[in-house]
Structure to design on (1349 residues):
């Protein structure tokens, strides 16, 4: 029995390194019972007990019932049950499902209004940063939190080709900018295909010139790295080319995503994720996936026109069929309201994608794609305590958020704050 | 009935049927015919009339068997049969004898619901937007898609329409069930005039009723003058037609509730976003509300009282006795790619009602019997009961679950939609009997016909045990 | 080289002059497609005064009769395009004008007619202008002649109805037939009154004229419900001048004058009497349902035109229309199921369902006429039966126009409208070598 247990563990770790993103049959590799020591002075902590705990870890461990222990803002452990030492705040939801806080990599609600996301001065803006426009805990972020979203990538719009650097932040209410920010800059936003083509001046109104402009500035940044030269306008872009920072690229359409993959995987070896990837992009997805490009789908989840076959095609189902790793979903909020992020995955499931994979598409997958999986995206020991309690399966529109915890602090409690969404 | 009698009858039936098919063949449209043909035709016409009469006697039987039946009246049957005669439900039960020649749809244990009712939609019948009886296109792809998402009846421009695919007779169920009144706070003069009309009409109605009473003794008594009374409002006060308002504003809603209470009619309020803040008043007024749970409007800065939208709106209103119909924010079929927000997402929107506190059953009522009532067709559709139209849907799970697909839709006792045979959704999780299904896969849906929230979760557990390769291998080609 | 050209053109002139002289001419052709009774190899067609006198295989030809010798050519009947506005210019609205006749706007000198002939179209059905409603009645013409009268073969071939699924279109049709019924009732009452008065006066003579009177009665009733025999007689008389008809009627009724029907009502009396057909343009399957409902039990000759110049869902009702054995007019186009790229051969689908098919050119211009056989060849290669296709360009439209006694096939007694192709007309490599209209070579040349 014991031997078998180890075998499973070995297999599991092997799978986890070999092919992240796919999940293997459930096998609990964690003890079913935790022993928790009492809070020391100066420490704070909470324990949530629930009917079911979905960790979204590499093995897709699910505890039924479940318990999660949080100490000083970090997850101490997850298990089926634990002792209840002194000092911990206890939250009991015997019928509820606990899941990691949701992560949305494509959002524009950080300023609380929709007017200031496109600053169209130049077609290429490597020095632009969206951090000055962030209004932490604004009403749109608050509704997102009531929809289970705890981590967002707030980015400039797609009005220009290289739109600038966005901020990874958490939907903490009533906190300062410094408290809510996870990474600034969190990554670069680039827009290729369609949107930037319409309004970027005389030169660069078409895809060819836009690509040329992007490659120009990329070459400048790479040159600066080679020569060890300091350039205030290119310092962040240099980090993109040293793979310190990820890129999110607005792109869509079958030829659009191939063009994007060529630019950001072949011509420039970067940590890049294509965002949207809708319309008929699913048709060329295998080529793009083969180049190691991760996909962040949304706000469109289905496609009907391009195939001209009369089928309603589930875009995520097609990406998964073609072997997409770490596929994630977005709302492009406010295009789709932030609080409806879970519905985006539900609709992908409806149109053919695997249901549990689509929950991972809102948690661990985007975290891995953006290199923040050490902190968020799953309920594992040592990670940030971003925990959401749902009264049903998180993807089901009928399920509501009962409790949302970020960094160990209860940011939304339906019983306390009223139901916001 | 004795056996030989039965046999005799059947023979007669068969003979009549043969006769009918024979005489039905000649076309109604005259072709260029020689002189001899015409004489022949006249004779045939006489025969045909005869044949038609016989045809009418021949009943069309249809049954759905082995259904996990949700009737919408609170009853739920396992392994049940719904039997319909000429499109109307004749019997519902667990052991039902089927007459000879019944067309049978075997639900195979799947869940059967009444067809959904969309309170309002656009564009399901082609370009038709008025004069429906003369302009509906019942071959419209949007209509087929709506059937594929469970909708069998819809309101459009105040008319109740049935999604009778490829037929035009019987599409228009009711022309005008409601009348729109303007009680907008932005239009104080209109509001004033409406109040005056109500006052005058109400006075007239009282006078008229008093006159009717007194007339019994005094036959020469003069009928009261109609003066400023309004014909439409008279219909409303008599309960012949429903008064409809489009209002979200708390203050307006209060006004409507008080107007309704004063004059004793039940208002239909579309929108009703701030209804939750005055639910008690609306409940007392016997109001109906048509809501979109996902509506998002922030509270006005000037308003001191509670305001703005609430996800709990539907649940709170219902708890105070307001009958709820739910509509999505999009009223037409939207294939632009953002799923779950158009008219096809009736169940998703109702699901958000559940999120706000409605029970699953109440949410289902909000997309079946309540909108049927508001459209004035609840005696025919909205639930499965004997005597009502046989409009139903066969689903591979709980209709409120986002992964559930309508497998078959039946309207007036006729299968008008089959997922397997239409282009739109056939490739998604095809079932065993699908032309697209792999031959050797047992579909989970058959083992688990019911997918309640709890069942859906246990299904997720089951999924983990299942190897990925078990996923249905979709064949790309579908023959035309 | 030049000399040879001169010689061949002389030869053509000789044939033409012989034919125009009203004499006999014999045609020896390798391959003749009669359309009405199959294909004849090594056929001989004898033409006199523009009419076909006889046709058969290897018939002996009397000495002295000029012979057109075309052993390598394929001969088919002249094409019939029943739905055209070539050479016409007026534009119409969408009103109810069933009394308008298309021939009132004929411009015989329009050069398009010569081009039309060159393309092998020897008979045209010209319809009145209008984008909706009932713009009027079509006429049948030969695309040649100095005056409108020269061109005209038949007036009142069909009344056109551009139907759309809306209350207006349906009401237009229902009202028209209601008015026709009103007239019939009125006429019946007037006649009864007349007869009553007459019987009072002529009580004594009643016995003698009994038989005659029966005839009168039928004559009066014919517009409402013609008896079979009379209808046949009427067909022959259909082309007769209306004035003559009226006098005849008046004479027969001995003093009875039927009340004059409104000019907009008359076409509907003719429709009911089977003297006129109605061509209904519909765009989709939904339109068909509404048209059928509006028409109700009305027994009139209906043909349908379904434009295939855009994708249509007409396949949804192919079965229903096929069962009624209706005639459909379509372009030889491959369409797709709307919203998809799934191809459909609707002409073939309708034929399979039992409908009669008329194929139209893809466009209404001499250029489109020239590519007509090639376009039809494309849908033949996509599955339409070849013989059905040829019939759909010749005899079927001729029958629809009510001129099948004159054109549409190569038969004894019919006009010698013949096309001489270098091979199978549906092969893209085949060339139209010559066109014969009523015994004259009007385009191209053949060996004599």
């Amino acid at each position: 029995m014991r031997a078998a247990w180890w075998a499973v563990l070995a297999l599991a770790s092997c799978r986890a390194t070999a092919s992240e993103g796919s999940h293997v049959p459930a096998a609990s590799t964690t003890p079913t019972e935790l022993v928790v020591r009492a809070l020391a002075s100066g420490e704070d902590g909470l324990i949530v007990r629930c009917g079911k705990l979905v960790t979204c870890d590499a093995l897709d461990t699910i505890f039924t019932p479940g318990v999660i222990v949080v100490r000083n803002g970090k997850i101490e452990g997850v298990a089926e049950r634990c002792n209840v030492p002194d000092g911990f705040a206890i939250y009991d939801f015997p019928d509820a499902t606990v899941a990691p806080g949701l992560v949305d990599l494509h959002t524009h609600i950080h300023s609380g209004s929709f007017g200031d996301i496109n600053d169209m001065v130049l077609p290429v803006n490597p020095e632009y940063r969206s951090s000055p426009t962030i209004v932490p805990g604004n009403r749109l972020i608050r509704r997102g939190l009531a929809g289970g979203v705890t981590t967002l990538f707030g980015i400039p719009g797609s009005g220009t080709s290289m739109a600038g650097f966005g901020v990874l932040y958490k939907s903490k209410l009533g906190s300062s900018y410094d408290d809510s920010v996870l990474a600034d800059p969190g990554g670069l936003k680039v827009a290729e295909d369609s949107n930037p083509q319409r309004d970027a001046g005389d030169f660069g109104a078409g895809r060819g010139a836009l690509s040329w402009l992007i490659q120009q500035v990329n070459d400048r940044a790479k040159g600066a790295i080679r020569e060890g030269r300091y350039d205030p306008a290119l310092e962040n872009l240099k980090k993109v080319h040293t793979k310190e920072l990820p890129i999110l690229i607005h792109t869509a359409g079958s030829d659009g995503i191939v063009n994007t993959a060529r630019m950001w995987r072949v011509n420039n070896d970067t940590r890049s994720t294509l965002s949207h990837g809708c319309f008929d992009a699913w048709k060329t997805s295998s080529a793009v996936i083969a180049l190691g490009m991760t996909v962040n789908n949304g706000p469109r989840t289905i496609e009907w026109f391009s195939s001209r076959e009369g089928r309603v095609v589930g875009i995520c189902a097609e990406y998964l069929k073609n072997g997409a790793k770490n596929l994630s979903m977005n709302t492009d909020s406010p295009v789709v309201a932030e609080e409806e992020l879970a519905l985006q995955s539900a609709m992908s499931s409806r149109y053919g994608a695997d249901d549990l994979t689509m929950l991972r598409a809102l948690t661990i997958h985007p975290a891995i794609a953006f290199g923040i999986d050490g902190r968020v995206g799953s309920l594992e020991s040592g990670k940030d305590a971003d925990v959401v309690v749902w009264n049903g399966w998180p993807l089901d529109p009928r399920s509501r958020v009962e409790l949302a915890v970020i960094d160990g602090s209860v940011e939304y409690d339906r019983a306390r704050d009223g139901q916001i969404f | 009935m004795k056996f030989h009698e039965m046999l005799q009858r059947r023979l007669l039936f068969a003979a009549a049927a043969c006769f009918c098919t024979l005489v039905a063949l000649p076309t109604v449209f005259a072709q260029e015919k020689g002189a001899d043909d015409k004489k022949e035709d006249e004779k045939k016409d006489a025969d045909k009339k005869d044949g038609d009469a016989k045809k009418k006697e021949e009943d069309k039987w249809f049954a759905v068997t082995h259904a996990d039946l949700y009737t919408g009246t609170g009853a739920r049957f396992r392994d049940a049969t719904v039997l319909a005669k000429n499109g109307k439900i004749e019997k519902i039960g667990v052991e039902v004898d089927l007459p000879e020649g019944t067309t049978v749809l075997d639900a195979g244990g799947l869940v059967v619901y009444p067809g959904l009712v969309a309170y309002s939609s656009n564009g399901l019948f082609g370009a038709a937007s008025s004069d429906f009886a003369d302009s509906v296109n019942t071959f419209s792809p949007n209509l087929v898609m709506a059937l594929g998402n469970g909708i069998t009846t819809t309101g459009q421009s105040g008319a109740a329409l049935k999604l009778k695919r490829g037929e035009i007779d019987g599409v228009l169920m009711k022309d005008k069930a409601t009348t729109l009144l303007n009680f907008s706070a932005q239009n104080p003069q209109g509001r004033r005039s409406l109040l005056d009309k109500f006052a005058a009409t109400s006075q007239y109605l009282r006078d008229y009723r008093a006159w009717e009473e007194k007339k019994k003794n005094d036959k020469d008594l003069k009928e009261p003058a109609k003066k400023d009374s309004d014909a439409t409002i008279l219909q409303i006060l008599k309960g012949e037609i429903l008064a409809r308002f489009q209002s979200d504003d708390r203050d307006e809603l209060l006004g409507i509730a008080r107007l309704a209470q004063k004059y004793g009619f039940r208002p239909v309020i579309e929108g009703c976003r701030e209804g939750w803040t005055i639910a008690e008043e609306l409940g007392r007024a016997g109001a109906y509300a048509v809501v979109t749970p996902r509506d998002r409007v922030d509270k006005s800065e000037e308003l001191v009282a509670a305001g703005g939208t609430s996800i709990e709106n539907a649940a709170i209103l219902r708890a105070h006795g307001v009958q709820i119909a739910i509509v999505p924010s999009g009223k037409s079929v939207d294939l632009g790619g953002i799923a779950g927000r158009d008219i096809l997402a009736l169940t998703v929107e109702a699901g958000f009602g559940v999120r706000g506190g409605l029970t699953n059953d109440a949410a289902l009522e909000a997309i079946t019997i309540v909108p049927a009532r508001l459209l004035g067709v609840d005696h025919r559709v909205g639930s499965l009961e004997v005597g009502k139209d046989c409009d139903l849907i066969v689903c591979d799970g709980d209709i409120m679950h986002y992964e559930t697909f309508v497998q078959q839709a039946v309207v007036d006792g006729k299968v008008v939609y089959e997922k397997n045979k239409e282009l739109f959704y056939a490739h998604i999780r095809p079932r065993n009997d699908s032309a697209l299904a792999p031959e050797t896969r047992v579909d989970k849906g058959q083992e688990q016909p019911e997918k309640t929230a709890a069942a859906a979760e246990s299904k997720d557990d089951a999924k983990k045990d299942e190897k990925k390769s078990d996923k249905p291998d979709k064949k790309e080609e579908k023959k035309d | 080289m030049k000399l040879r050209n001169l010689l061949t053109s002389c030869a053509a002139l000789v044939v033409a002059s012989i034919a125009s002289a009203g004499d006999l001419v014999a045609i020896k052709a390798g391959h003749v497609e009669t359309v009405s009774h199959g294909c004849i190899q090594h056929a001989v067609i004898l033409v006199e005064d523009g009419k076909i006198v006889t046709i058969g295989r290897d018939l002996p030809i009397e000495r002295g009769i000029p012979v057109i010798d075309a052993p390598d050519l394929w001969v088919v009947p002249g094409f019939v395009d029943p739905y055209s506005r070539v050479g016409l210019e007026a534009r119409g609205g969408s009103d109810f004008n069933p009394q308008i006749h298309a021939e009132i706007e004929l411009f015989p000198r329009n050069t398009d007619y010569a081009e039309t002939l060159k393309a092998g179209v020897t008979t045209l059905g010209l319809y009145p202008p209008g984008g909706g409603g009932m713009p009027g009645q079509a006429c049948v013409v030969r695309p040649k002649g100095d005056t409108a009268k020269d061109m005209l073969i038949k007036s009142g071939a069909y009344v056109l109805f551009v139907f759309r699924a809306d209350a207006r279109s349906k009401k237009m049709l229902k009202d028209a037939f209601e008015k026709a019924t009103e007239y019939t009732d009125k006429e019946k009452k007037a006649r009864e009154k007349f007869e009553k008065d007459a019987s009072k006066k002529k009580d004594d003579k009643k016995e003698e004229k009994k038989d005659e009177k029966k005839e009168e009665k039928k004559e009066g009733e014919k517009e409402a419900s013609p008896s079979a025999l009379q209808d046949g007689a009427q067909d022959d008389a259909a082309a007769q001048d209306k004035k003559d008809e009226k006098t005849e009627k008046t004479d027969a009724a001995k003093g009875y004058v039927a009340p004059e029907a409104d000019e907009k009502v008359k076409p509907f009396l003719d429709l009911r009497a089977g003297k006129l057909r109605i061509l209904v343009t519909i765009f989709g399957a939904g339109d068909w349902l509404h048209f059928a409902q509006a028409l109700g039990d009305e027994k009139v000759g209906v043909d349908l035109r379904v434009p295939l110049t855009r994708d249509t869902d007409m396949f949804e009702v192919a079965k229903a229309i096929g069962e009624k054995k209706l005639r459909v007019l379509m372009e030889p186009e491959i369409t797709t199921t709307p919203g998809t790229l799934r191809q459909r051969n609707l002409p073939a689908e309708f034929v399979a369902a039992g409908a009669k098919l008329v194929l139209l050119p893809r466009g209404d211009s001499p250029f489109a006429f020239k590519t007509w056989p090639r376009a039809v060849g494309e849908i033949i290669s996509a599955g339409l039966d070849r013989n059905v296709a040829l019939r759909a360009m010749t005899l079927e439209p001729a029958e629809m126009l009510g001129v099948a006694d004159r054109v549409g096939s190569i038969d004894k007694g019919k006009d010698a409208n013949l096309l001489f192709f270098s091979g199978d007309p549906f092969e893209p490599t085949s060339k139209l070598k010559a066109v014969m209209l009523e015994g004259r070579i009007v385009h191209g040349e053949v060996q004599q």
In short: Residues 1-21, 216-248 of chain C have pLDDT under 50 and may be disordered. Residues 97 and 148 of chain C are 22 Å apart (CA to CA).
